[in-house]
Design brief:
Layout lengths: L2 E9 L2 E5 L8 E4 L6 H12 L14 E6 L2 E4 L9 E5 H11 L11 H29 L5 H16 L4 H9 L13 H4 L5 H4 L2 H17 L11 H14 L8 E2 L6 E2 L2 H16 L2 H11 L9 H7 L2 H4 L5 H12 L4 H27 L1 H14 L4 E9 L6 E11 L2 E5 L1 H7 L2 H22 L3 E6 L7 H15 L4 E7 L2 H10 L4 E7 L4 E5 L2 H4 L3 H14 L2 H19 L4 H10 L10 H12 L11 H13 L9 H22 L10 H8 L5 H13 L3 H4 L5 H4 L3 H17 L4
Parallel strand pairs: 2-15, 3-13, 3-14, 6-12, 12-13
Antiparallel strand pairs: 1-2, 1-4, 4-5, 7-8, 9-10, 10-11, 14-15
Amino acid sequence: MAVKIEKFKNVYGINDLKGIDSVNGNALIYAPNGGTKTSLALGFKSISNGINPNDRIFEKKCEYIFNLDGNLYSDKELKNIDNIVVYNFEEYYKESLENSGNKINLLTISSELQRKYGEIYHVCLDKIDILSKKISSIIGNKKKENDNISLSLEFFKSTFNLYNWRDIIVFLSNIEWSNKIEIENNIINILNENTIPIISSNDFIERVNKLNNTLNSKVESILFKGVFGSIEAGKLIKEIKSDGFFEAGHAIKLCGKDELITSCEDFEKIYQEQLNIIYNDDETKKDVEDLLSKINKNKATREIRGFISNPEILTQMNDFNKFSLKILSGCLQGLETEIKETAKLINNSDEAINKLMNEAESERTKWEEICSIFNDRFIVPFEISIKNRFNSIIGKNYPTFEIKYKKNNNEKVINEELLKKTLSTGEVRALTILHFLFDLNISIEKNNETFVILDDVVDSFDYKNKYAMIEYISELSNENNIICWVLTHNFDFFSSCKYRVKGFDKYYIKQNKNSENFQKFNESIIGGGMELFSNWKKMLNDTSDEKKFISLIPVCRNLVELKHGVNDEKYKTLCNVLHFRLNTKNILVDEIKPIFIETFNIHCNLDDSKKVFNILFEQLNILSTTNLSNSIGLDDKIILAIGIRIVIEMVFNKFDTSFVNSDLSLGEEYESVKQCLEADDKKVFSKALISIPEFVHLNSFMYEPLIDIPTIVLQEIYKDVIKIKEKYSIE
């Protein structure tokens, strides 16, 4: 497989990437934070999804041209590219959880299935959310929307045993909307915790049945017969009135009555007469009063007493479930169409999700293989397996993580909520790595060739898991059908990959004013272990390079310390060069040369009479007046770090001369004198202390953190501390 990139311009934070055409195979790419690597990764992620990754700040149109596996891609024709797989933790994790509806366990399905699930889930969720608010505004009686939503959910829970809006909407769609009782009161004033126990009790229902029996025995009505009762007759009158039935010249003949009814007024008159015959009877009145007496006259039940004092309503209360549904359909009748449409969407979504879950189940075997690799290689306090478990949101079975925590010979399977609370950032990252490995395997199976980009893949990993990931990258490098780019701002990780992963070309990204440059990695420029120091030794021996002379002093001091200890005079001399002591300004090259000869076995032809202090500051003057925006050389950074420390100690010495003979750390010295410093000075020194930690001077083999600091940052700090030194007239 081959990838050839001709142009990459205005892609998120990238202006114009130069030299990228030189990268053809597997590549290990270093760049400090802000050094365009994430823009590069996310750019390819967007391109693979058929999205133009335009410059976000200045809204410049992106331009790109690249050839992947013999296929040409450019910004002129957007298309999905299945065989590009990009991993960036922050984006990958965020995207995964968004697609899965914030369900960690849905990381167990591939990204493509996640995307489809997310589309279905969120469309359905949005519809449910809108409708639930409308229903709540009708049912609730509070001023705040959230209060009404809570109140409505409690109503459906207590009345119909429904606990979520999805089930509520499906339930409502199936009720008999034509069989309703219209109410002027708010429904929760009729049906609530105070009234439901009363009107649903057996005693109350028995009394309603008694009333109905009384009424049935008296019904010899010309109007009310069989199932056509007073309610039905009242509805008929309303419909005839609104439809203009009589105005159209129609008439009604009632059974047992010879005259035709030709007006609403006549019909309503007969209707009222029939009601009076039935409901004004003394026995009926007694039964109604008996029922009403079961409901206490208090604030909580006042409205329902007034509501059911209407015998027409009271007679329908012999079946609590039917009665409550009639009231519900009456108050929500304006939402009937929307409820049914949303319920249909939910059902269709369930069917679609069910198909996705069947696909997910077919991926299970591959997941089991990946989990096995993960459990074997990554050292975490839990073991992962794939199980089927019920999901409360969609009500379907699908593959899920089973997380078994292991500690002190104890084991426990934890659920998803506890998982979210328990996992550290590194452990969550490990889970997304697991998901990424699965996506990668899916892509490899689907496509003959795959282009993989890994961006800061081991951030928040401890060393054990970092090396587990390096091992996996090493395996990728052996695959003929994969090209892998590893992007990192962590030089320690870069160095580890450099030594452990074979077949990767090494690059770093250098930023210019209007462009970014891919540069082939050079040990003599950027650093990287003993190879670098060996190269410096050779340059010093061959050319008498003063920069390398100064840069090797911390290395030499460490070797002397290891061999002779801290009480050795050679060690003390080198310390006096790296710190501001009584004789720092007077130490000659001639005093350092023998130490270099003994330690490094090299002969440098520097002027013996020259003071090391002067050489240091000559180099510092050059560095302070040079444009270092593109410099990533470790020797530049070491010299600046040494200079910053010495200048700071010169300033501190002005306030406390005892420091010239002390072994205090720079931080301890600062704490002793900071009360003497001006506020602006403190800001400068605080920044310096953060950027120039102790390892620069105490352990010269731990340079990787220093490499990660941009040279220009060190340059600016040096300029700031020099200004303070000059302000206090320190020579």
